[in-house]
Amino acid sequence: MKKIFAVVLLGLLCCGTAVLRAADPEQFIPATAPAIVRINVGDLLAKPWMKNVLAKAEANEKFAQGAAELQKAFGVPWHKLIVGNAWITIPDGNFDQKNGSVFLFKTPVTEAKLAQSLNAAQTDKKFVLSKKVLAGKTFYISTPVRRNQQKTAEASALAYLAEDVVLLCKAAVLSEEFVQQFNGKSANALLKQIDRSAVAAMLIDVAAAAGNDQCSQVKGVLRLAGDKVENLSFELELHGVFKDKNAASQLAMQIQLMFPGLVGLVFGNDDKLAMELAGALKVKTKKEEMFVSYRISYNTLLRIEKYLANPANRPSSGRNQSVGKPVELNNGAK
Fold this sequence. Notes:
The structure is a single chain. Strands 4-5-6-7-3-2-1-8-9-10-12-11 form a 12-stranded antiparallel beta sheet. The protein has 10 helices and 12 strands. The protein is globular, with a radius of gyration of 22 Å. The protein is an alpha+beta fold. It has helices spanning 2-12, 41-46, 50-58, 61-74, 111-121, 176-180, 206-210, 245-267, 271-279, 298-309, and strands at residues 35-40, 83-90, 102-106, 127-134, 137-144, 156-162, 165-170, 200-204, 215-225, 233-242, 281-286, 289-297.
């Protein structure tokens, strides 16, 4: 369970063709998939403060160059390559595999345009492109070319499930059986339960995903509040349903005991920042349910970025003298 909640926290605080009609990505989520994540890309890009964020990003020379190359290749601005809701899912049987997640999204880029762009991009010799047909879908497999042959190049695979819906995954998981799960014939029951009001949300059927008999389900949402960047705040909410009251209370206590130590491990060189980050965590229980919330401001994120950019603050540097130093957290579970 600790592993599941850690993944959720890190993940939310973190890509011959049988053409079907235009469709929504969610209809291709396998019926048996025990975990789904929804990201409302359209809503995020429509936020009033996003224009300033995009302008700042494009002011970076390397970023601007990459964005220009993408627009030249695909014919649309980089921030319009994905439309509406994008989905991340983990098919049944892949929950414990690091390559098990699948990204589904809607795009204005046609398959013909994508194939043309990928073929043209091979000229820089940074990757090798190959094709593979599975369950009637053509997968474009991209394998990076690495100078250091001691490291295995991790190939990615992309296929069109409909004329405007794309599946992106690691090539290592590809098989006929794997692809057949994404036929869009049966709806996933989790889609009726997942939150659709927040910018991002997730839902895990823990019993089905990990065979856990202590927790049945975990829900999570990420909310953004504020009309300007300077007063923007991020709030992550998690809701877990457990076998009984004791199971919920035990995990709540473990989270409260472990989290300050993790914060001290990473941010031990700035006591003020560490205290703020540790204090932002709120945990409570109600019978067999556990509720976790974590809220920080945009300015705090900038402080985190600045802190981590300093090599002396990285635990691996050996200079962080406060590694492992816990931060006191006074918000006991009730």
